[in-house]
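Narrative of activities, Objective 1.

The group set out to show that a structural description can be obtained from nothing but a protein's sequence at a throughput compatible with the screening campaign. Below is one input-output pair from the validation batch, recorded exactly as produced.
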Amino acid sequence: MGRFFRAMLFGAGFFLLSQVAVAAPFKVLVVMSYEEQNPWCEEIKQGIDTVLAPSSEISYFYMDTKVAPEGGPAKAKQALAAYQALQPDGVITVDDNAQSMLVVPSLKDKVPTPIMFAGVNAAASKYGYPNQHISGILERAHVRESLAFAKQLFPSIDRACLVTNDVPSGRALQQQVEADRTKYPVPARQFFLTKSTAELDELGETLRQSCDALFVDSLEGIKDAAQQSMSNQQVLSYLKTLFPGPILGGNRYTVEQGAWAAVVKTGQEQGETAAEMLLQAMQGTPVEQIPVTTNNKGERIVNVSALKANNVPLKPLVLRGATLVREQP
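Output recorded for this entry:
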């Protein structure tokens, strides 16, 4: 009888604790620099939700600064208002614009809330990170690894060029390339920061004459002739009319949308890591004990549609372990 009574008490206690956990989850605010439909944001959201959904109510705010950069300051004010209304237990801020427009001027050293960043391309020190309540994960493109993989797939390439939108993430990638270019298996000859298809048109002859392969990243937001922001896929399609050779991409969706191959970084890794770090902080680990980290997972992706269309032979030994995808229509 005593054993049955103890079992009943234990069961009742477990039920009550479970109800408390369900009734009082952590409140988390995630501020994305870009638009909700951006594939990078979608990947990061998947990573965050995987870790935090069981324990947290997650509110997402999108600043739309890739497609509408001029609206960034106003969106930052709205994000701050969302923070003040929600009073979250933790915050995740994604990509550089959320740091420069929101965290540094309005939250850093002004609130006690633990904040984890993700997708930051600049050096953490640019924003005064880390500090007593801010840490996170930096984003670094696998340029060297992509060029090494490309050299295996396309042995004739001897000169690489890079093209990105002229935005903070693109300029940060340029700094990464300048620091690392002596380690590349294929010389990185030129880095082009562009804002419009008109500028791409001006580069067309240079790309064809000086580059055997292009590495592209952060293309979203480049303006077309009508000054409308283009999607990553639209810019890739436009680039392929100007440059007939191999195009490499920094993200899986870039390969799925038209690049030939890459060793990609993933938004899932960014989101999962930032969420795991934030969960530690919300559960009581001092943020000072959660060091800034950098993405390290690379995945080899090959667009078999592009290779077949360009008569590139599929080499089983080179493709071993790679993920093969078909280009999206």
